[in-house]
Specification:
This protein has eleven helices and five strands, in the order E-H-E-H-H-H-H-H-E-H-E-H-H-E-H-H. Helix 1 packs across helix 11 (193-206), helix 2 (37-47) crosses helix 6 (89-106) and helix 8 (135-146) packs across helix 9 (150-172). The chain has a five-stranded parallel beta sheet, sandwiched between helices. With 207 residues, the chain is an alpha/beta fold.
């Protein structure tokens, strides 16, 4: 069946599972765009906030107290730190969803994270991937990437997993690790990153 809409791959990934590397390699081999920070940049522009500040909220929710002060409008009266004047979580999600939908309509791309699998769930020419790995593989990779001790890497992974799972469930109503929401899930630690790329490419040829 011929597809008229641009082909899009969405990648949801656990920290340390090699999602960025695999996404970049897929984009290179398929000769399509790799989209990650572009989403952040365009959403920040749409919300009229500094991109670096919005990055601190990427795929995570406001803390209870930040959210409380924001909702009740105390920031201006009590001169709270500037970050408490940030957009609501829903505003950020909607802005990023708008950017993702626009990209999917206009050009082929590999789209990283930010609930892309859910935002584009009705999109006709899309493949959604979930990449995961065991904790030892992820910890070793995070240690190397961020120059961290094993303890710090494990703490970073645990925190990121909780924040990302909470964010995704809040805005999609879905469990992040439920394989039913994806076309293909891979244990990159067992397969290896480059072989994961090959496997995905072979899968794409078969559909």
């Amino acid at each position: 069946m011929k597809q008229t809409a641009p082909f899009v791959i969405t990648i949801s990934r656990q920290l340390g599972s090699g999602g960025a590397y695999i996404g970049q390699q897929l984009a290179k081999k398929l000769n399509i765009d790799y989209v990650d920070r572009e989403i952040l940049s365009k959403a920040a522009k749409q919300l009229a906030v500094v991109e670096a500040d919005l990055e601190s909220r990427d795929e995570r929710l406001l803390s209870f107290w930040n959210s409380f002060f924001h909702i009740n409008g105390f920031a201006e009266d009590y001169h709270l730190p500037p970050q408490m004047n940030f957009p609501f979580d829903r505003e950020i999600f909607d802005a990023e969803a708008d950017v993702i939908e626009h990209i999917a309509r206009e050009r082929p791309a590999v789209i990283m994270g930010r609930c892309g699998f859910h935002i584009l769930r009705e999109y006709s020419n899309r493949v959604s991937l979930f990449l995961h790995a065991d904790i030892s593989f992820r910890s070793k990779r995070v240690q190397e990437l961020y120059n961290l001790s094993e303890k710090a890497a494990l703490e970073m992974i645990s925190k990121n997993d909780k924040e990302r799972a909470n964010y995704i469930e809040t805005f999609t109503g879905k469990k992040w690790t439920d394989a039913r929401h994806f076309n293909l899930t891979l244990d990159t630690g067992k397969i290896g990153l480059d072989k994961s790329v090959e496997l995905i490419l072979n899968y794409l040829k078969s559909i």
